[in-house]
Amino acid sequence: MTDKSFVIHVCGGPYVSLAPLSALRFTKAALAAGHTIQRVFFYQEGVALANALSCPPQDEINLTKAWQAIAAEHQLELSVCVAAALKRGIVDAKEAARFGLAHHNLAEGFVLTGLGQLVDGMANADRTVTFS
Question: Would you please indicate which residues are annotated as catalytic (active-site) residues?
Fold first, then answer.
């Protein structure tokens, strides 16, 4: 079997869908098998993973921190759809300033991007796997 490159597309929201956890597990397994991850793209309710202010109960996995850890370990790009994020109140410092907001809450390691990043990843990867 030859190594493949993947785009991971996460649409399901944390704690209401198994999509983010399934995507995380798939990503770990793919990396362990020697495959590469071109990009992880959070879209629709999946953008909630990029909220630095989420505080899950101590007996539940903190999916935001889990994605940050795997991204740091494997230098993965955690792209967040800017339109979907803004709609759900997730902003970086630049967007907070643009809209006159006093604070920002985009978690470290995540970056606001457009759908073009998803399309670019899909065009350059062998496979796109969507979790919704």
Answer: 81
